[in-house]
């Protein structure tokens, strides 16, 4: 550990002498940060989703529409029962080869929806 300090100091002195090394040491990480910062997006959008609307009220339809309007969810099917919903989830059913269903929403009653809306 005693040798690390002098070696670290020597390397910084050498970098100060050699401008190309200093430019490479600082420039490449900055360029990578800029390129990858704009190129990589971690937003999850258009998740194929199956909906089971047990409530079937205007409020539940508004909630389902709000989900789809966010752009995060793409509703691919509405099912009529929990068994059908479970089948979609278990099979990982898909409409075509590119769209696997990865989400499911079950709207049960308006009281839970209104309670959820009050907490937002």
Account of the 3D structure:
Helix 3 links the parallel strand 1 (47-53) and strand 2 (73-79). The protein folds into 2 domains: 4-39; 47-119. It is built from 5 helices and 3 strands. It is rod-shaped, with a radius of gyration of 27 Å. Strands 2-1-3 form a 3-stranded parallel sheet, sandwiched between helices. The termini are far apart. Residues 95-99 and 114-120 have low confidence and may be disordered. The longest helix is centred in the first third of the chain and has 21 residues, at 19-39. With 120 residues, the chain is α/β, with parallel strands linked by helices.
Offer a few descriptive terms:
120 residues, alpha/beta, three-stranded parallel beta sheet
Short structural description:
The protein has helices spanning 4-17, 19-39, 58-69, 82-91, 110-119, and strands at residues 47-53, 73-79, 103-107.
């Amino acid at each position: 550990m005693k040798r690390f300090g002098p070696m670290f100091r020597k390397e910084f002195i050498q970098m100060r002498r050699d401008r190309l090394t200093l430019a490479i040491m600082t420039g490449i990480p900055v360029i990578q940060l800029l390129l990858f910062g704009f190129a990589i997006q971690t937003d999850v959008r258009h998740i194929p989703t199956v909906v089971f609307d047990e409530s079937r009220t205007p409020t539940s339809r508004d909630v389902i529409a709000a989900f789809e309007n966010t752009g995060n969810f793409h509703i691919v099917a509405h099912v009529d029962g929990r068994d059908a919903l479970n089948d979609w989830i278990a099979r990982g059913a898909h409409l075509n080869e590119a769209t696997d269903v990865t989400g499911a929403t079950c709207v049960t009653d308006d009281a839970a929806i209104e309670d959820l809306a009050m907490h937002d």
